[in-house]
Amino acid sequence: MDVRIAEQNLEVEREKSEVLRKNLIDVSAQLEEIKSPLFVTSVKKGEVLLKNRKTQITDKLNLEMKKKCALGELQNTRGQWQRMDQNLQHFLNKTLSTFGLRMQRMAVQEPRLSPVTETTGS
Predict the structure, then answer these.
(1) Which branch of life, at top level (predicted)?
(2) What is the 3-state secondary structure (H, E, C) of 82-107?
(3) What are the structural domain ranges in the chain?
């Protein structure tokens, strides 16, 4: 009985060693592939491509942020001008109302030409 168990254990150990040998061959082949100049070059190119892509994304994000900041500043400036215009209108209305006048919006009109009459002097 012990002999049969020992033979089974020996067979299991042989199968394990065969699997390990195949794995070792696969790992050795992969190691040789990694050492090959073509693989090293492709890895370096990949790193460069990743670095370039990261730079492109970073540049794009920076540009978007600059656009948003510029747009925000433009909107702030527009708001400031609108507030200044409202304050000025309010000030003018108050000033004019103290004198009993009212501010009227003036429309641009074409100047009217009055007929010129010649006077003759005798």
Answers:
(1) Eukaryota
(2) HHHHHHHHHHHHHHHHHCCCCCCCCC
(3) 2-96
| Cα pseudo-dihedral 63, 67, 69, 71, rounded to 10 | 180
Instruction: Give the pLDDT confidence of 25-64 residue by residue, as tens digits.
Output: 888 888 777 777 776 677 777 777 788 888 888 888 888 8
Token pair of 43, please? 């890895």
Q: Give the residue-averaged pLDDT of 94-121.
A: 60
For 44, the token pair is 């370096």
Which residues touch 48 (CB under 8 Å, ≥6 apart)? Answer: none
* Among the listed residues 111, 110, 94, 112, the one whose alpha carbon sits nearest the alpha carbon of residue 102: 94
Taking 3-state DSSP, the helix, strand and coil percentages for the chain, each rounded to the nearest 5, stand at 80, 0, 20
Phi and psi at residue 121, to the nearest 5°: -100, 130
Report the b/e string of 23-58 with b at 16+ CB within 10 A: eeeeeeeeeeeeeeeeeeeeeeeeeeeeeeeeeeee
Q: What is the mean pLDDT of the chain?
A: 77
